[in-house]
Amino acid sequence: MKCQRQKFNLQRKHAYLNCAYMSPLMKKVEKAGIQGIKRKRKPFHISASDFFEDTEDLRKKYSQLIDCPEPKRVVVIPSVSYGLANVVNNIPFTDGEILLCDEQFPSNVYPWLRLKESGFQIKTISPTDSENRGESWNDKIIQSINENTRVVSIGHVHWSDGTLFNLEQIRARLDEVGGLLIIDGTQSVGALPFSVKKFRPDALICAGYKWLMGPYSIGLAYYGSAFDNGKPVEENWINRLDSENFSELINYQESYHEVSLRYEVGEHSNFILVPMLLNAIKQLNAWQPANIQEYTRELMLDAINEIQELGYVLESEKFRANHLFGVRLPKKIDIEQINRSFKTNRVSVSLRGDAVRISPNVYNDEMDVRKLLKALKEPIFASKH
User: Fold this and answer.
1) Which of 35, 42, 236, 376 has a CA-to-CA distance to 135 between 20 and 30 Å?
2) Cα(239)–Cα(258) distance, rounded to whole angstroms?
3) Which domains, from first to last, does the chain contain?
4) DSSP H helices in 214-363
């Protein structure tokens, strides 16, 4: 795969290695949004079928991306917290343990804390402070699953440092105890291969503005059969049976649309955001996440060796993603020093906890990597003088 920078409007003077914060918009995605805005100038051209066709296409294209055989299990959501609220409100248990990873993103923590009011226990699994952090963390998660475990809610990768979690093994252990696997795919889906068939999540929740390369305030959720008869967090007209027939809307329906469509956000037929996300996902299907992983691996391979030689600490390649990884600082370098160096060199990364989070994508090239290395080297050289 070649660099795809020409599809974006990025400035050369900035090295944007921060897709985990927010992706830049592709030119075609930006154009789709502008066209969506212009449609509202002449609303008489927007027909009843337009409320459904783009979202139906979006479900199909996203299902292709995540290897999901049932597009009607995919719904449009406004945020991860919204998608998880549907999960938390409908888990088929009355007590037990909810397992979370340490320092997960808050949107995958706060919804679960509400269950403490109902008598559930929230158990946080922390990594061990070792060279084999990723491996030992995965082992600890699997060992923590027991007969009292009801849910493991986790990312495919950890949002702050890219630690890879072994979803197949976690799924297999949950099968033994009858627990649910809930995945926050925000920092992985689109850049890291994900298969619903392979990992069999009970829910996969994903914001659209990072690795899906879409706009803010729209995302996608997959809900498995465990949630087929649940109650959505809102009751809206468009999720009800026969809502396509506008002339019959006052004939109120008790039944929802089939499978998971009851969980879609109201006004999900967003004529601006939906076409933008649809265009982005079409491009991701053309690129393929496996190719994105390989591109970012090759792009960063030599640089990672050099970063480690400078004294920075990274997780082993086996237990970290290529599109998102954390670099921990040498003891002689503090976070403020490194932050100043990034700003001076116009390198955009994120500081998360005690890690510098670096997240390249297909628009990055060797020039970006050289700027990154320069920013990482300067504090090291300054500390020696």
Assistant:
1) 376
2) 9
3) 5-20+288-383 (3.90.1150.10), 28-286 (3.40.640.10)
4) 273-287, 289-309, 335-344
